[in-house]
Amino acid sequence: MYIDRHLTDTLHTLIGQFPSVLLTGARQVGKFTLLKHITGDDYTYITFDDPLMIQQVKTDPRLFLLDHPGELILDEIQLAPELFPYLKMEIDHKGDYGMYLLSGSQAYHLMQHVSESMAGRIAIVNLAGLNLREIHGLTAPGVFVPS
Questions:
Q1: What's the pTM value of the predicted model, to 2 decimals?
Q2: Which of 2, 30, 101, 144 lies 20 to 30 Å from 37, alpha-carbon distance?
Q3: Residues 144, 136: contact at Cβ < 8 Å?
């Protein structure tokens, strides 16, 4: 069962305003689930939890992007820092909004690479765990009173 997240509208807006969006947060808070939910089948999903994907990026990051054209969700991007300069070049070359949706769980390490390579090309959003309002389907501001 999917639980609507409060960040959904914000992410839709940012995808339409930036070439790349980075969704950070602790492991297992639903980063990929949220990105997949809002994009449907429009994006190709790649996880860097897969050792084969890591090896491809480390061997030739440019070839990796050539092998994966189109809009991408790149999950656990902090495991593939070699990719950032090539993402920047692709963004600068194409200039489209919403090209790359990134997710990662190691905020400090990840932010170092993002700030060095992607300044002005990326929106960064932090996703916390589910809150009571989301769990109970309450999206409007107000006071939650448990039953």
A1: 0.83
A2: 144
A3: yes
